[in-house]
Design a protein that fits this description.
One of its GO terms (cellular component) is cytoplasm. It catalyses: [protein]-peptidylproline (omega=180) = [protein]-peptidylproline (omega=0). InterPro entries: PPIase_dom_sf, PPIase_FKBP_dom, Trig_fac, Trigger_fac_C, Trigger_fac_C_sf, Trigger_fac_ribosome-bd_bac, Trigger_fac_ribosome-bd_sf, Trigger_fact/SurA_dom_sf. The chain has 449 residues and is of the alpha+beta class. It has three domains: 117 residues, 2-Layer Sandwich (Alpha-Beta Plaits), CATH 3.30.70; 94 residues, Chitinase A, domain 3, CATH 3.10.50.40; 182 residues, Orthogonal Bundle (Trigger factor, domain 2), CATH 1.10.3120. Helices cover 47% and strands 19% of the residues. It contains 13 helices and eleven strands. The strands form three sheets. Strands 6, 7, 8, 9 and 10 form a five-stranded antiparallel beta sheet that branches. A four-stranded antiparallel beta sheet has the order 1-2-4-3. Strands 5-11 form a two-stranded parallel sheet. Helix 9 packs across helix 12, helix 10 packs antiparallel against helix 11 and helix 11 packs across helix 12. The radius of gyration is 33 Å and the shape is elongated.
């Protein structure tokens, strides 16, 4: 087998592969000899089929098998001889002319085909210890803890029917039927539905219109679905809900005491406060971690520049743009922000390049420092995912066991977080006190993260 480089342009390479007819014919002959005693052909005893006849019957199928082996060998030779890493599967261009293929199969011509590949760039990892990043942190305020406790108390309050008009925080039990232009729509109907006014359970404007109703009242509630509503067939449309009020109930005083704590499985109200503070703190830590990670990725992106495999960037862009088109089709004006398609594409192509660059860089850092994801970590991720689908855990488990690509999608973020942890240990991290609002505010260009 002869491998000749015919193109070297950036990260693109092309090679011409030539397999002499004699070598190919020898391989085919050896394979036919292997199957000679295993096949049954009418008119011939096992093992007595003439080689020429055997080749006429099985020559093409054996040629296909040998061709697959040859392509695998050629790809390995390209990688080993040139000491490169492939960015994706090689693109193979085989002879298309039937007469040319026939000559190759019959051993009358050499097999010649081309292989186009894109290789990964040489990545020189900078001094990770020189990276300086900020980690925003915020203190948990007592009023936030008290607000959460009040909400828990309200959610666990008892209600008693009352004769008067419904007020905010009262619970109304209603039947409702939603329609658009006089036609009922799927999912817009309910019976004996309990609704606490002011809870924000229904779309904006619905609950406010029920303030003042009494048991037995019927009322048409007119609302508009938000433009970014999850059901795209309803997004941005005006609807009318025919509501029948069956009961109005007022809440008893919701006390934050030991009784509430025990109802929630805690020993005392003090233990409940600790649990609430820990839960809020967990959210703060997660937000702080995400901000730190974003700062770290920004620093890595700014200090590492190298060529990117064009096809990887194109694939990443296609994936992002497909999602953007769906959002635009559903009225996502926030996505467009007054920009043309060309302007949006240029913006998202830059984001695609950033993602590919950081993905390659993190992979290189992980490989160079032997950072690995254990089977136990992947198993835990599968179990966590299965728990998101109550009653279907076994099906989810089997899906991941049978789909290596899906399993790799769970492994990738675990690997990324471990690499980030490694870099954080080396970098200079400075904590910066911020407010809660600053901690949870989205950066202007958060979509690039």
């Amino acid at each position: 087998m002869q491998v000749t480089e015919t193109l070297s342009e950036g990260l693109k390479r092309e090679y011409r592969i030539t397999v002499p007819a004699k070598d190919l014919d020898g391989r085919i002959a050896n394979r036919l000899e292997e199957i000679k005693t295993k096949v049954k052909i009418n008119g011939f005893r096992p093992g007595k089929v003439p080689a020429a006849h055997l080749k006429r019957v099985y020559g093409r199928s054996v040629f296909g098998e040998i061709l697959q082996e040859l392509m695998t060998e050629a790809n390995r030779k390209i990688v080993d001889d040139n000491k490169v890493k492939l960015a994706m599967q090689p693109k193979v261009s085989l002879p298309e002319e039937e007469s040319e293929v026939e000559k190759v199969v019959e051993g009358k011509a050499d097999l010649t085909y081309t292989v186009a590949v894109e290789v990964l760039p040489e990545i020189k990892i900078g001094d990770l210890k020189s990276l300086s990043v900020e980690k925003p942190v915020a203190d948990i305020q007592d009023d936030e803890v008290n607000e959460t406790l009040t909400r828990l108390a309200t959610q666990n309050a008892t209600y008693e029917p009352k004769d008067g008009k419904a007020e905010l925080k009262d619970k109304v039990t209603i039947d409702f039927v939603g329609s658009i232009d006089g036609v009922e729509f799927d999912g817009g109907k309910g019976e004996d539905h309990p609704l606490i006014l002011g809870s924000g359970q229904f779309i904006p404007g619905f609950e406010e219109q029920l303030v003042g109703v009494k048991a037995g009242d019927k009322k048409d509630v007119k609302v508009g679905f938000p433009a970014d509503y999850r059901a795209t067939d309803l997004a941005g449309k005006d609807a009318v809900f025919a509501v029948t009020v069956k009961e109005v109930a007022g809440a008893n005083n919701a006390a934050i005491d030991d009784e509430l704590a025990k109802k929630l499985g805690m020993e005392s109200v003090d233990k409940l406060k600790e649990a609430v503070k820990d839960q809020i703190g967990s959210g703060y830590k997660q937000a702080s971690r995400q901000r730190l990670k974003r700062s770290l990725l920004d620093a890595l992106d700014a200090t590492h520049k190298f060529d990117l495999p064009p096809t990887l960037v194109e694939q990443e862009f296609a994936q992002i743009w497909s999602q953007v088109e769906k959002e635009l089709a559903s009225g996502g004006d926030k996505v467009r922000e007054g920009k043309t398609d060309d302007q949006l594409k240029a913006e998202y192509r830059t984001i695609s390049e950033r993602r590919v660059r950081l993905g390659l860089l993190l992979a290189e850092i992980g490989e160079k420092n032997d950072i690995q994801v254990t089977n136990d970590e992947v198993t835990k991720a599968v179990v966590d995912r299965a728990r998101q689908f109550p009653g279907q855990e076994q099906m989810v488990w089997e899906f991941y066991q049978k789909n290596p690509e899906a399993l790799a999608e769970l492994r990738a973020p675990i690997f990324e977080e471990k690499v980030v942890d490694y870099i954080v240990e080396l970098a200079k991290v400075t904590e910066k006190k911020v407010t809660k609002e600053e901690l949870f505010a989205d950066p202007d260009d958060d979509k690039a993260a």
